[in-house]
């Protein structure tokens, strides 16, 4: 059941025919980004799309009080920023790096040309976009009806699946997210999150070292999240 809400890595690029990959590679301009560096911001006009080679990206909204709510996390292998071009609108959210990242940029003109030439790429992008919107809608619906403790448990389960995408041994999966970002994902104050994480540690549900968190008891965490 929990798979409905996972921030799943799409690996869209790997599903493309070699000829389509070549088209994209020829027009990609790759750049290194530092942690906490903005990629695009809410309300700005798109001039291209992005492909995440390495790292993690958060997608978030800021409310009228300046509070940040993380609504999606991208990891390596995902395209992002293309929905605004397809809808011919400004960006409706902001994205920035959660860690040092390597990102490729494809200009708007090149992107639209490739869309016209590659029905496979078009189909996979629509599939990816549908998945992303489904995840966001489900996550918002679930979190809006949960206590802070339940939201914290569910967020940790979601993040575990996101961070395990590049790991082979599940027992070694470490969630590496700042407490500020985790609090923004849960939708609570940092101090409240700290108390809940401490409770989880005392209950031997998680262990933590610095900013890194490892889940120890999935069954109990799922129970706390009230999610079956």
Describe the structure.
The chain has helices spanning 18-27, 83-87, 108-117, 119-143, 148-163, 179-186, 190-202, 218-224; strands spanning 29-33, 38-40, 48-54, 56-62, 68-75, 79-80, 94-97, 101-107, 175-176, 206-209, 212-215. With 228 residues, it is an alpha+beta fold. It has two domains: 3-142, Jelly Rolls (Sandwich); 147-225, Winged helix-like DNA-binding domain superfamily/Winged helix DNA-binding domain (Arc Repressor Mutant, subunit A). The strands form three sheets. The chain has a four-stranded antiparallel β-sheet with strand order 1-8-3-6. Strands 2-7-4-5 form a four-stranded antiparallel β-sheet. The protein is elongated and about 55 Å long. The termini are close together.
Key terms:
41% helix, 2 domains, 228 residues, DNA-binding transcription factor activity, Arc Repressor Mutant, subunit A, transcription, four-stranded antiparallel beta sheet, Jelly Rolls
H-E order: HEEEEEEHEEHHHEHHEEH
CATH H-level name of the largest domain... which superfamily? Answer: Jelly Rolls
- The order of strands across the largest sheet is 1-8-3-6
**Cα-atom radius of gyration:** 18 Å
Q: Report the structural category.
A: alpha+beta
Could you please say which CATH topology of the largest domain applies here? Jelly Rolls
Beta content comes to 15-25%
> How many H/I helical runs?
8
Average pLDDT score: 85
Overall number of domains: 2
Low-pLDDT ranges: 1-10
Q: What separation lies between the terminal Cα atoms?
A: 6 Å
GO molecular function: DNA binding; DNA-binding transcription factor activity
Domain HTH crp-type: 146-219
Pfam families: cNMP_binding, HTH_Crp_2
Domain Cyclic nucleotide-binding: 12-132
